[in-house]
Design brief:
By secondary structure, the chain is an alpha+beta fold. The chain has one helix spanning about 15-30, and strands at about 1-10, 30-40, 45-55. It has one domain (about 1-55). A hairpin with a 5-residue loop joins strand 2 and strand 3 (about 45-55).
Length: about 55
């Protein structure tokens, strides 16, 4: 059964590492469909990743 999981990470500096490790854990189970990264005016980094998970 396949379903899509959207991971949205709003990070400041070190929090990005935590978000990345969560995304990495998902990527081991599924296929990354799309990734969107943008830097917001306040200096935060917005990352959106869409995975297709096989379960």
């Amino acid at each position: 059964m396949k379903h899509k999981v959207k991971i949205i990470i709003l990070s400041v500096l070190g929090v990005l590492l935590v978000g990345s490790s969560v995304a990495y854990a998902y990527s081991q189970k599924g296929t990354l469909i799309s990734q969107k990264t943008e830097e917001l005016p306040d200096g935060n980094i917005y990352v959106e990743e869409l995975y297709e998970i096989d379960q």
